């Protein structure tokens, strides 16, 4: 199958349109942070419309996290950190806010880590004698620092990832398969795995981005295809279960995915459907690469079995996403884990902003974290 035989994409109307609105931003009126809000691009409404969700309180932010209006590991970390600042600015109980935010979704370690970072800074400021407005400013500046660090991490991951791709698939013209959504919508910068593909595209080295639709919530179809179209990348969408025949046809040079949590031994939790891709990649001798910032690596989680995998409501499987249109008989039970875990021996390399771990094991992961 060459590029001519691939279904043409109806993405021309998206070419050259302005960059996506920021996935998340802090806004406060001139009078001060008491009226601050966290503005999110509501990802449940994409690609049909770009609608912003204005969170004036932590409850609204927790709901946005639970419904995946804001999602993706690095962005959840930012949402968590800004959420603590929002609670402090608005005069909510910051302890309670931190607990609610951390518990909103269990798998992406970035969320609890982002919350903890802003919360610890806030508490430390109070302990050092700061008043609440000053401690709030400290929490906000911690969230902003995390945001800036995440943007810088995106750039470094793209550089490391591109160099790795060139080693794994010499000569360019890469045909890359990706799963879920890992671009600017999940990051302070250009993203993780998608950021590498985008860098390859900008260097004229990406022949095709194969985009898994990512059942059941279609982050690939709704979000990654949207980002790829806007960046005028050569992309093709496939149903998740078409990946096997794509590998068998020799159409995939490398798999690039993100991560929600990387355990100390390199086991990687990512969107459900990632593990089968790793098995397929191994069977077909194709490199399988995880791209994630070090904020996603959790040395306190020893192995894959210790990662809590979020279980989501069955209706996400028994109904079409976004519409309450049933695709299964009423009362059908559904198995709906949001993530699966890929063991380290199936992962060719882990790319972070600090470098590349390959082979993937406890020692190489520890080295990445140490920087
Ligand atoms: O349930 P989601 O949409 O939050 O899941 C997101 C993913 O699984 C991403 O692949 C992961 O967070 C990496 S994003 C850089």
From TrEMBL:
Entry keyword annotation includes ATP-binding: no
Molecular function GO terms recorded: S-methyl-5-thioribose-1-phosphate isomerase activity
Marked site positions, Transition state stabilizer: 180
Pathway: Amino-acid biosynthesis; L-methionine biosynthesis via salvage pathway; L-methionine from S-methyl-5-thio-alpha-D-ribose 1-phosphate: step 1/6
InterPro entries according to UniProt: IF-2B-related, IF-M1Pi, IF_2B-like_C, Initiation_fac_2B_a/b/d, M1Pi_N, NagB/RpiA_transferase-like
Pfam families in the record: IF-2B
Top-level taxon: Bacteria
Active site, per annotation: 260 (proton donor)
Residues that coordinate or bind substrate: 71-73, 105, 219, 270-271
Enzyme class, first EC level, given as a word: isomerase
SUPFAM superfamilies according to UniProt: NagB/RpiA/CoA transferase-like
EC number annotated for this UniProt entry: 5.3.1.23
Catalytic activity: 5-(methylsulfanyl)-alpha-D-ribose 1-phosphate = 5-(methylsulfanyl)-D-ribulose 1-phosphate
Keyword list, A-Z: Amino-acid biosynthesis, Isomerase, Methionine biosynthesis
Function: Catalyzes the interconversion of methylthioribose-1-phosphate (MTR-1-P) into methylthioribulose-1-phosphate (MTRu-1-P).
Assigned protein family: Belongs to the EIF-2B alpha/beta/delta subunits family. MtnA subfamily.
Name of this chain's protein: Methylthioribose-1-phosphate isomerase
Source organism of this protein record: Streptantibioticus parmotrematis
